[in-house]
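Support request, please re-run this one:
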Amino acid sequence: MLPQSTVPKPRPFHAVRFYNDAEGLSAIVAGFLTQGFTIAQAAIVIGTPAHRAAIEERLAAAGFDPTQLKREGRLFVLDAQEVLERILVDGMPNASAFEKAIVPIIEEASGGRRDCVVRAYGEMVDVLWRAGQTAAAIRLETLWNTLANTQSFSLLCGYSMGNFYKNAAIEEICSHHSHVMSSHGEAAEVH
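Re-run finished. Output below.
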């Protein structure tokens, strides 16, 4: 057995879901979040207004009251565009601004417990990608991966398949993720 200091740290769960429509996306995201709620994990959703509403509807249909979860500090719902406005400097995600915007939310969701993994869904990368800011989207993926070295979270990112007709960069996107989520919610490891 390897000494504790030489045991490689497991790769954080950072999955991507390429989606065709909001209905399919909301089902996958709600499933990902409800799995966490059943094991006492809190959740953060950073999405567009339409997707946030669809995800909350799916959570309610699964028997989880989003209003109650928010009141209990188990669900945090943020607007992707508003968070982007806080973290972009000259059109690119800024590491310091990103940490200032995201770390307090993760810490609040975890209740200050270092052993608590928070589940997060984010589509800020998709907002950037749809706006033609592919370098900014990739930079944001890198910032999430860096943050995983100091914070405990499982992250699911959503990318609209309609955005890839301009630039077939699916392989590049996948290279920044540990897993790809199927339409049934199964996670396949990226090699």
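DSSP finds eight helices and nine strands in the chain. The helical segments are 22-37, 49-61, 66-71, 80-87, 95-110, 124-130, 134-147, 170-175.
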